[in-house]
């Protein structure tokens, strides 16, 4: 793949078709890997949609692309650029999973509580992967440069004392889902949002146009966009969902789909 010329920055940006945060850092990782012949891993987590676009453009990029978020269905991933075909073991030294625990007898902390407390230490969201809540524990990958700092300085979350340490395993716990079965007229995102929220199509469109819906980690403002299997949809105030499978059509030609709702 190395015979392909290095993409210029403007051509690299065109791959994504929209504004992307940290595009300068992403391009720097790509160009460094291309010029040096070494495997380069980003120091930021990117939405899985970015990984998908890079993978589809790998022949133009001239390098192999691998994204990994420490679980098979992660929404946020580190990205490896490499001349060689590599596996997820290349990410072992790039980030570590932290386990944050607390006494939940009198308090119940949310995903947002933990995320806000970690970011209050001076980190941007890009330095962290998916956050998985399991009982009174939270698991989150952090880029290696900041692991020790979080362990030493995160002592409370919303005034609740917490204990922080390295997780022994290199994968996030399996996420819990509620399985939903829906019958929809089409796979347009406004139709799917309507089915998931039990709102009318017009109100579902208002959520999309009002920047309340994310598709694969990016704000989706086009109600006409079609969703696909394995797409992740986040609807503000309603939760996070994954399109698991299309089961076929009904006798009236409506579409039967299975959706995982994250618990």
Plain-language structure description:
The protein is built from 8 helices and 16 strands. The chain is of the alpha+beta class and 263 residues long. The chain folds into 3 domains: 9-91, Ribosomal Protein S8, Chain: A, domain 1, CATH 3.30.1370; 95-166, RRM (RNA recognition motif) domain (Alpha-Beta Plaits, 2-Layer Sandwich), CATH 3.30.70; 177-262, Roll (Structural Genomics Hypothetical 15.5 Kd Protein In mrcA-pckA Intergenic Region, Chain A). The strands form 4 sheets. A 6-stranded antiparallel β-sheet has the order 11-16-15-14-12-13. Strands 1, 2, 3 and 4 form a 4-stranded antiparallel β-sheet that branches. β12 and β13 (218-219) form a beta hairpin. α7 crosses α8. The termini are far apart. 30% of the residues are buried. The mean pLDDT is 91.
Q: Which CATH first-tier class of the largest domain would you pick?
A: Alpha Beta
Number of helices in the DSSP assignment: 8
Strands, count: 16
Described by strand count, sense and barrel closure, the largest sheet is: 6 strands, antiparallel
């Amino acid at each position: 793949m190395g015979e392909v010329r290095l993409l210029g920055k403007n051509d690299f940006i065109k791959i994504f078709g929209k504004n992307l945060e940290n595009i300068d850092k992403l391009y720097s990782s790509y160009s460094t890997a291309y010029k040096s012949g070494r495997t380069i891993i980003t120091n930021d987590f990117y939405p899985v949609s970015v990984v998908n676009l890079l993978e589809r453009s790998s022949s133009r990029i001239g390098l192999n692309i691998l994204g990994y978020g420490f679980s098979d269905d992660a929404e946020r991933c580190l990205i490896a650029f490499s001349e060689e075909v590599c596996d997820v073991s290349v990410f072992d030294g790039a980030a570590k999973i932290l386990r944050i625990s607390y006494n939940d007898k009198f308090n119940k902390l949310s995903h947002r509580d933990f995320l806000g407390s970690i970011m209050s230490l001076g980190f941007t969201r890009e330095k962290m992967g998916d956050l998985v809540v399991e009982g009174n524990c939270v698991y989150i990958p952090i880029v290696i440069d900041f692991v020790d700092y979080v362990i030493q300085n995160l002592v409370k979350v919303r005034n609740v004392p917490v204990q922080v340490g390295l997780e022994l395993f290199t994968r996030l716990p399996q996420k819990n889902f509620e399985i939903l079965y829906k019958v929809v007229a089409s796979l347009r995102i406004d139709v799917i949002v309507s089915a998931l929220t039990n709102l009318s199509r017009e109100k579902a469109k208002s959520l999309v146009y009002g920047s309340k819906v994310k598709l694969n980690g990016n704000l989706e403002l086009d109600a006409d966009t079609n969703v696909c299997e394995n797409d992740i949809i986040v609807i503000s105030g309603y939760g996070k969902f994954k399109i698991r499978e299309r089961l076929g059509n009904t006798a009236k030609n409506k579409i039967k789909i299975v959706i995982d709702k994250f618990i």
